[in-house]
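User: I'm putting together notes for a lab meeting next week and I want to include a structural view of one of the chains we've been expressing. I don't have a solved structure, so I'd like a prediction I can at least talk through. The sequence is below, exactly as it appears in our construct file.
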Amino acid sequence: MRGYRALARISAKNALTYRLEFAFALFGVLFQFVALLAVWRVLLADSTTGTGFTWPQMRGYLLVAFASGAVVGLFADFRMSFRIRSGLVALDLIKPVRYQEARFAEVLGGVWIEVLVVLLVGGVTVLVAGAPTWPGGAELALFTASMVLLIPLKFLVVYLCGLASFWTQNYVGVQWARIAIVNLFSGALVPLAYLPGWLASVAAWSPFAGMTSTPGLILIGRATGAQAAFLVAVQLGWVVVLWFGAKLLWRTAVRQLTVNGG
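Assistant: Thanks for the context. Below is the predicted structure for the 262-residue chain, given as structure tokens.
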């Protein structure tokens, strides 16, 4: 555990050292949040649509979408991809830590900084637009659990895409595809209720729904009681499946590594 804690501390120090890059990455997510607030404010126009969303509900939902986009190292996949493509990953293999757990420790090291940014933006949003309606009792506990599960879930999606660097030299295309798929199937851009029925069903059962839709629906009260508990259970199930699936993919991916030297 000592090695993982050291990696987490180094990751936090890097985020604080390279503040400009960190700020620019967060600015992109913040800009999307503000833009979506403006768009949905006009679309909903303080009225209830056929899907049942009101403006206060949408505001809380979009805040969750912002939090989902802000957490889990915005440059984690690029760092991982660079080390794989350059062969520096060979140095990671000789360290007395497991590769997947080490990358997760690095992500956790910077999460607290990202959470502070989310709380700051959330506080400003509440001051400007008013506080969303918070769930109470069991729903609040389920919302908290869902937000915690969001972190390993997003890490695993990013990590699995990062492993693609063992087979491709151009990671940018993989990243763009990941962002597009996640934004659509997680409900980050458009809540799943607005999608066509068949597509909404596919998205709801995908791992991506746990990255925005599940915590968002619990926060605004559109998922309560047994339904909320079921959604969190599905979210947890995907974390377990993807964690061990990533282990299997790593065993195949590492065989692609070729290091030349002399």
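A couple of points you could mention at the meeting. The two ends are 34 Å apart (CA to CA). The mean pLDDT is 85.

User: Perfect, that's what I needed.
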